[in-house]
Specification:
Blueprint lengths: L1 H29 L1 E6 L1 E3 L9 E5 L32 E8 L5 E7 L7 E7 L5 E2 L4 E3 L2 H12 L3 E9 L5 E10 L1 H23 L1
Antiparallel strand pairs: 1-9, 2-3, 3-8, 4-5, 4-6, 6-7, 9-10
Length: 201
């Protein structure tokens, strides 16, 4: 009898873990792909392996980023009891012309439509969404750190976002800023031409 109870308990725990894992991975399979800009750091935590720590423009809580036209959000500030430690906060995103998304506003009420992220206020100054860490191999983490040291580099996080605001981090993209590089090259050419003119004079 005890063996049967033990087997049932083990099976129940396995099923529970499977359900929790499936729920956590749902955005990767059923979510909408959204790209947002990020700032990167590489803290190298020995207990959690190599990862890149991500900071978004909607990570920092500011009362001025609430919608003043929304009756629920009109008088919100960080001292409001509705945004105490652990309170649910939504970051509403808006699409840009280049296909990425940027932060529009915070909301304490779940938006009826559009793209938004569901996070938790930490009681101090940050809102956490579960997309703050991107794990990678030691070599990849080192390469990422080197790339971020270069000038004119943009970093984007690829998120998979569900209709309820739950999100998972799918990928991290680092690319050269072509426009900045073009302007820089153009400036160098102009200086070269100026030197040629001065030499002729």
């Amino acid at each position: 009898m005890k063996i049967k109870v033990l087997i049932v308990a083990v099976i129940f725990q396995i099923l529970l873990i499977g359900i929790m894992l499936g729920y956590a991975l749902m955005p990767l399979y059923f979510g909408q792909e959204v790209r947002v800009r990020v700032n990167l750091y590489d803290p190298r935590d020995l207990f959690r392996g190599n990862y890149v720590d991500l900071n978004y423009e909607f990570s920092n809580f500011h009362s001025r980023n609430f919608d003043e036209n929304d009756k629920d959000d009109r008088y919100i500030d960080k001292y409001d009891e509705r945004v105490r430690d652990g309170a649910r906060v939504y970051a509403v995103l808006k699409p840009d012309v280049n296909g990425t998304y940027s932060f529009a506003k915070f909301s304490i009420s779940k938006p009826d439509n559009g793209v938004f992220l569901a996070g938790r206020y930490d009681g101090y100054s940050l809102v956490k969404y579960g997309i703050e860490h991107f794990y990678m191999s030691p070599d990849s983490a080192a390469n990422t750190e080197d790339e971020m040291r270069e000038e004119d580099v943009d970093a984007y996080a690829v998120l998979m976002v569900m209709d309820n605001g739950k999100a998972r981090l799918k990928d991290l993209i680092i690319q050269k800023n072509v426009q900045k590089n073009s302007k820089k090259l153009l400036g160098d050419e102009n200086f070269d031409k100026l030197d040629e003119i001065r030499q002729k004079e």
